[in-house]
Amino acid sequence: MSSEKQKIDDDSRASQGSSSSSCVEDTTTEPSPSSSECGIVPTLGVSPTDSPTTPISSAGSCEREEEMKRSAVKKRIERYFYQLLEGCGNATCGNRFCASSGKVPALTPDQAAARALQLFAEEAKLCTSVQPSKVARTEDHPSCPSQADFSSDSMACRETGGGGESSCRPSSAISPSKSHLKSPSSSQSGVEVTTTTTHLDEEVIDNLVRSCIERNSPLALIRSVGAIFSSTDAVARSFRQRAVTPIDLLLRKAPQKDLRNLTKEDLRSLEGDLDKDEDSSCAGREPVPEIHETDVDVKSLRRAVKQLFGLEDEEANQPKNIFPVFEPMNNALQTLATSLKIDLEVTIQKEAIEDIIRIFVVVFEVISIAPAEFLEGGLTKMCCAAASLPVWAQARLAWIWARNSTPILRPILESLQQIITLQVIPSMIPVQDNEVIVNATKLMKIVYYADILAGEIDSVQLREEDAPTTTAADEDLEATARWSFDDVKFTTTAKADPLVQELGVHPIDARKPFMALSEFYNESLSDTIEMDYDYLNYKNMHMDEKNMNKKFCFMLYSFILTPATKTLALYYDSRIRMYSERRINYFTTHLSGQAPNPYLKLKVRREHLIDDALIELEMITMENPKDLKKQLVVEFMGEQGIDEGGVSKEFFQLIVEQIFNPDYGMFINQEDTDTMWFNSMSFENEAQFTLIGIVLGLAIYNNIILAVNFPMVVYRKLLGIRGSFPDLQDWNPKLFRSLKAMLEDDEPDMETVYMQTFEINYQDVFGNVLKHELKSNGRDLFVTQENKREFVDLYSEYLLNVSIERQFSAFRKGFRMVTDESPLGLLFRPEEVELLVCGSKEFDFEELQAATDYDAGYTADTPVIRNFWEIVHALPIENQRQLLEFTTGSDRVPVGGLSRLKMVIARNGPDSDSLPTSHTCFNVLLLPEYDTKEKLKRLLLKAISYCKGFGML
């Protein structure tokens, strides 16, 4: 065996003999980095991945020995590397391979790495006096993190696993935790090693756990965890990824070769590869971080935390900690959170905040794995600290979580939901004033956007930036509104969310988030919140900056509110606007001497419903579009009844039935999905579609649910997102599957198999086949593997956007004429807008029964009431819909379920042959006290089956 082989074996045995401490004799000569021209990071010791700890069992001992040998080889090459660059420090050195001798020419780090590999292969002379403490410090290098001076504490640093970058941080930055650890090797001789823990990583924690298990005492672990996790500097240095060095890059190029048998051609080739490698020119430098990158070793951190808390990890070869440190960790994190909040209040330097972001990455990995003990302690205070992050830092943290830490999103969300729920239940103050709830909600917003970023997102190119503008006349009227309403100040548009602007991502861009966005709803909070108070906070935020209301507003964090609660906020907004319009009208007409017209009043004939409605709406939009913001009042000519809401419901139901009838020609029925779509060949002009959009907007504005069935792409387009290929899935499933199969087809003969060109066929209303070229000369261009994606995108663009551009643009214009000033886009996502327009699809009459009140002598135990509910629950779904329409004027279920209806059943005299009647405006069912169940069922079915045109009140 050669002398070189003997040295390597000695090195490997030394490393293996001190698995809990890397402080072996050979490491005293391990070179440390210098402030060389390329900023070499001085972290060339053995990392946890390079030198795994000793297995618990004897299995894999051969792999362990081989790993130790590879680590020793690497260390020896590194010693040659630093000897060539820095020398041994001996001015009289005669080694021609040492920089101290003056015989080594100036080398770049890449050249030095290749030359070091050659010296290793030649078993060249290696100075034994190369000491890390004699190498120049690099802590002042602008591109590198601050480094520790390898002096008296350098050995201790390596003993605790300081092979990574973080082990070279200055120990003076914190108050170190000194604990007496006995390594496996030293325990045999009874010698204890005193270490100074200035950071944590996987190897340090593994050593601490092993030592505590051996000594049967958790003292060292408790002290280290308490000291590190209560110090911002220490946490910022912990769990850092080891920087890549030229040696690492070089060994990656030839990991399987015998390093002693490399030829000169091999060495020149490796050196050339290093020169071409972009990373090698600045190896070891700390690059400017991209917004979604972090230098925290998240995977190693996750394994270490599981070991710290005594949790099993099948992938990690670690001993199970029998001394979980929940309480010390909780206390330390509370101290850490207090320091972070203070730092964020006084710190404006980006570099300092980058360290704080790094701390949050580490801490929330810990919290996501920890049990519920953190809910009232560490997590609560961390929410307070995270709420103080500047917007750019929130965006960066969201990107980091989305790209590196998706497993922690659901645990953090569940913990935040639990914190909020526990605070809501006993709260005696408005939830907007509860700091714990507010801070948890602010942190949940970061999780919310991380969830969106971690999923599938639509391209920003699909957004349509055509927000409605305000005319001079509108501004004058707006000024009058501000004068006439004391508490609420109207603005045409809500201020853009700064975090949305920073991220460049809006919730409506979310195509398929990592978690369902409905998981962010908190029903306890939504049921407790006073939306009138929250709405006033929202409106007051639009006052002058100097007088801006600083109170928290959940409408700006609408992801946490259920659709039913958000509908209530929209209801308050529309009702206040109606009230304001009434006051303006009374004021202006009084000054001008005209008759007041405080309502949007429509007089229509049943037999000419659409013509009358569209003509009146067209006149209003031409004379004064602002009248659309008044409260709607409908009168059927020739019929009795005052519209308190019920007549309007019937009006909308009837007009929707006629307008969306395919025979009318404006919309067509998609047979596969039973949805309505715009007729691209319609003979109606744009004005007709504008009026249909006004009808839809008026329904939302007046809190009326419609029986329309649009595909989801319509609601996405209404909120400003163009249709794209994924929207075909619910628009035309068969076509979607065909195009998807084309995209997934990898066969080279696509042209001959599909025979598809960039020209498509479609039918007009008369059944004639028409052709359309998706691009210039499309009929001569076949779909191939290279252009199939372009074909699918152009095909989808034509079907969902181009072919109906005229009709849909007019429809959306009418819709926005009513909803432009409402917080609709702020509160609702596309699927929630569909729920707002169409209502819930769940017919739970048990909920309706539980929410029903009784009047005029009836109670829940009255025999006729018990018979009534037994009959209702046994009715088929169609008859149940008829009952809803008879009682409320609409057969749709409101957002939030039937419990939101608050139906009233009142006694309407003794037993008789009279049919049940109703006041649809107030959801009141007038029910005589029938003697028998059979009579009740017969008369009830008759009433609900022939209720249309009764002239219901």
Mind explaining what this structure looks like?
The chain has 953 residues and is of the alpha/beta class. It has 37 helices and 14 strands. The strands form six sheets. The chain has a four-stranded mixed β-sheet with strand order 11-12-14-13, with helices on one face. It has a two-stranded antiparallel sheet with strand order 1-2. A hairpin with a 4-residue loop joins strand 7 (667-670) and strand 8 (675-678). Helix 13 crosses helix 16, helix 15 crosses helix 17 and helix 26 (712-718) crosses helix 33. The protein is globular and about 115 Å long.
Overview in brief:
This protein is α/β, with parallel strands linked by helices and 953 residues long.
- Write out the strand line-up for the largest beta sheet, numbering strands in chain order: 11-12-14-13
Task: List the uncertain runs.
Answer: 12-60, 131-195, 278-288, 467-493
Biggest sheet architecture: 4 strands, mixed
The gyration radius over C-alpha positions equals 37 Å
Can you give the mean pLDDT? 75
How would you describe the shape? globular
Would you tell me the structural class of the helices and strands?
alpha/beta
Q: What is the β-strand count? A: 14
Strand content: 5-15%
How many helical stretches? 37
Fraction of helical residues: 40-55%
First-residue to last-residue Cα separation: 106 Å
Topology summary:
Blueprint: H1 3-16, H2 61-85, H3 109-122, H4 154-159, E1 177-181, H5 184-187, E2 193-197, H6 202-215, H7 219-229, H8 232-237, H9 246-253, H10 264-276, H11 298-308, H12 326-346, H13 350-369, H14 378-386, H15 391-404, H16 409-424, H17 435-453, E3 456-457, H18 472-484, H19 498-503, E4 510-512, H20 523-528, H21 531-540, H22 563-592, E5 599-604, H23 609-623, E6 631-636, H24 646-659, E7 667-670, E8 675-678, H25 686-701, H26 712-718, H27 728-731, H28 733-744, H29 750-754, E9 759-763, E10 769-773, H30 788-802, H31 805-819, H32 824-827, H33 830-838, H34 845-851, E11 853-855, H35 863-874, H36 877-888, E12 904-907, E13 917-919, E14 924-927, H37 933-945
Parallel strand pairs: 5-6, 11-12, 12-14
Antiparallel strand pairs: 1-2, 3-4, 7-8, 9-10, 13-14
Helix pairs in contact: 1-2, 2-3, 3-10, 6-11, 7-12, 9-10, 11-13, 12-14, 13-15, 13-16, 14-17, 15-17, 16-17, 21-22, 25-31, 26-33, 36-37
